[in-house]
Structures are given as structure tokens and as C-alpha cells.
């Protein structure tokens, strides 16, 4: 009776979500040998016991006869039971590999819907409160395929704290969500507060895939692009009025290019509404057609989808670092003209 009580309480400690675990089966077999559980609990053990011991007997159960547990529990029988149960359990490594590959494939499909294009145009919306009252708003961008600029293929939406935006301005921390034309998030970029050198992270499904670090220089604009822990590109812009940012590998070969376009004196002087063209050059498998209005960029190799996501994060960082005004020009100019 004392053994039966201990086995009942021990089995209650086990998780009910895994009733067929080897430990549960052993406890149940021991209980059967002591007569503490009903014979119906031993139905799935009869074939194993009859095969290993040759002494299994058929007992009466609900709905007909069912095999019963062996008359005595031996070490050999427990060893056979353990091996039998282990064969039925899935391999953790195989499950982990399958789930990892599935999530990676899912992320790749999401990135493919936006980044498998030769050229992307990113245009920032006008922030009227910033123009007239120097009130910093959340940044909004429209992403277009250069081959069809009238149909947006995605959007960039910033999420940040309103107080941080007014106090820290371009150094504020924020998260920008990159979504497709249907409103589904593809990936996001996260930019923490910075004082000297800015950093921006690209994240897919909440996992960091790449990062862009700005390197300090007195006049040059230098950025290092990483995919995981591996640096795959560097940008070394000469500064001043040069608005072309070329991504190059360690052998100085061109990988991609980001150009900031001139949108007119009104846009450039009074607003933050800049426009950027990301030229990826060669296509990735399954990409969309090229655009005849933009000169094809010769690259040493096509960037992967994850590398393209990091390049898009660089475009957002460039806009915040060098091309975001402090606002408040419009209202004083109107007053002076009156």
C-alpha cells in the first residue's frame, strides 16, 4: 500500500501533456505489478511484455480482452520498455532544425515580396507640423518599385515617443516598421539613442539579422554593414554635396548604391521630404523586372535578401543622420513676407 501511494503521487507530478513519456510508462508498469492501477491502463504494454517476457496473459477489460502487464517487473523488461519508448519520441535536434528552417523560409518569403527588385524608390512624406511649428512628427515613407512608381509596394512607419522626438530630434530612439502594400509587416529596423555614432538594427520576426554602424569622421560619411557578426559591406562617402552612397566589399567591389535625389528647391529648403533610390544591380532568383529609366548598376554579386534588408536600414539611417531638418522655417518666412 505504501508503494502504491508513492507511485500515484509520483505520477501526479509528471506533466499531463506527456502521458506517454518513458518515465510515466515505467511508473505505470510498476503500479500495475503492485495492483494499484486498473488493467485498462496496461493495454498498450501487453505487446511489449509478451514479446520480451513471453509470459503476458490476456485479461478482461472494457470492450473486450486486453493484454496485461507481466507478472513481475524485471530489469530486462524495463530496459526494453525504455528503448521502445525512446524510438517513439521525436529527435529534439531534428525538431529544432525543422522549426528553424521553417521560420527562416517564412522570413525569406516575406523579404522576397519587397526586396526582390532591381531598384527601389523611397520617398518621405511631408511633415507639415514640422514645417510650420518645428513639431517633430513620426517619419513616414513610401516604397515604390522604380519600374512602376505609381503603385506603392510598401511603407515605412516610425514608432517613437513624442517627448523624445521633441527633445532629442534626430538622435531619438525609434522603431520603424517596414510593411507591404497590404499592411503586413515584413521586417523592422530599430535605432537606439546615440550621441556620437549612430547604429541601426534590422530585425525579422523579432530576431536581429544585421546592423549598420556609423563610423566617426570629421567630414566623410562612413558606415559599416554587418550580417550577423560578419561585415559584408562598407560605405565611404566623401561628404559635402556628394549624395551617392556606394556599398563596397573588402576588395572594393561594388555591391549596391543608394542615391538621394534632388526634389526641387521647395522640398529641399523647407521640408524633410527626401527621396532615395536603392540600386541593387543584378537580380536575385525570382526577382521582378528591371527599370529602363534607371541606369543598371554593375555589381560583383547580387546581395541576398537579408543583406538588402540591411541596405534599406542604411537608407533610413542616412535620412535621419544627414537629411533631417530641424523644422520651423515655414511660419517665420510667411510672417516676413507679410
UniProtKB/TrEMBL annotation:
Residue stretches of biased makeup (Gly residues): 53-64
Region (Disordered): 41-72
Record-linked InterPro entries: Scramblase (IPR005552), Tubby-like_C (IPR025659)
Gene Ontology CC: one annotated term: plasma membrane
Gene Ontology molecular function: phospholipid scramblase activity
Matches recorded under Pfam families: Scramblase
The family this protein is said to belong to: Belongs to the phospholipid scramblase family.
Protein name: Phospholipid scramblase
Organism listed in the record: Rhynchospora breviuscula
Taxonomic lineage: Eukaryota, Viridiplantae, Streptophyta, Embryophyta, Tracheophyta
Amino acid at each position: 500500500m505504501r508503494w502504491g501511494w508513492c507511485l500515484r503521487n509520483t505520477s501526479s507530478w509528471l506533466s499531463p501533456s506527456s502521458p506517454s513519456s518513458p518515465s510515466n510508462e515505467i511508473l505505470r508498469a510498476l503500479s500495475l505489478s503492485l495492483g494499484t492501477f486498473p488493467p485498462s491502463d496496461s493495454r498498450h504494454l501487453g505487446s511489449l511484455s509478451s514479446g520480451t517476457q513471453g509470459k503476458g496473459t490476456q485479461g478482461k477489460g472494457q470492450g473486450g480482452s486486453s493484454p496485461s502487464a507481466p507478472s513481475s517487473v524485471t530489469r530486462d523488461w524495463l530496459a526494453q520498455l525504455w528503448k521502445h519508448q525512446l524510438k517513439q519520441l521525436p529527435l529534439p535536434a531534428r525538431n529544432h532544425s525543422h522549426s528553424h528552417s521553417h521560420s527562416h523560409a517564412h522570413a525569406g518569403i516575406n523579404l522576397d515580396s519587397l526586396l526582390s527588385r532591381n531598384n527601389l524608390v523611397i520617398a518621405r512624406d511631408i511633415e507639415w507640423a514640422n514645417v510650420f511649428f518645428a513639431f517633430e512628427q513620426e517619419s513616414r515613407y513610401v516604397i515604390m518599385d522604380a519600374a512602376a512608381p505609381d503603385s506603392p509596394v510598401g511603407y515605412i512607419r516610425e514608432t517613437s515617443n513624442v517627448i523624445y522626438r521633441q527633445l532629442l530630434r534626430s538622435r531619438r530612439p525609434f522603431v520603424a516598421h517596414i510593411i507591404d502594400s497590404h499592411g503586413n509587416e515584413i521586417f523592422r529596423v530599430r535605432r537606439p539613442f546615440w550621441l556620437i555614432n549612430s547604429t541601426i538594427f534590422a530585425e525579422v520576426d523579432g530576431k536581429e539579422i544585421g546592423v549598420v554602424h556609423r563610423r566617426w569622421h570629421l567630414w566623410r560619411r562612413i558606415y559599416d554593414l554587418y550580417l550577423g557578426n560578419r561585415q559584408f559591406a562598407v560605405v565611404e562617402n566623401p561628404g559635402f554635396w556628394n549624395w551617392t552612397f556606394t556599398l563596397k566589399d573588402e576588395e572594393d567591389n561594388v555591391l549596391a548604391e543608394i542615391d538621394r535625389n534632388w526634389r526641387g528647391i521647395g522640398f529641399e529648403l523647407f521640408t524633410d521630404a527626401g527621396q532615395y533610390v536603392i540600386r541593387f544591380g543584378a537580380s536575385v532568383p525570382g526577382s521582378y523586372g528591371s527599370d529602363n529609366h534607371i541606369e543598371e548598376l554593375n555589381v560583383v554579386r547580387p546581395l541576398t535578401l537579408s543583406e538588402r534588408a540591411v541596405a534599406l536600414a542604411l537608407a533610413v539611417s542616412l535620412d535621419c543622420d544627414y537629411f533631417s531638418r530641424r523644422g520651423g522655417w515655414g511660419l517665420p518666412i510667411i510672417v516676413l513676407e507679410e
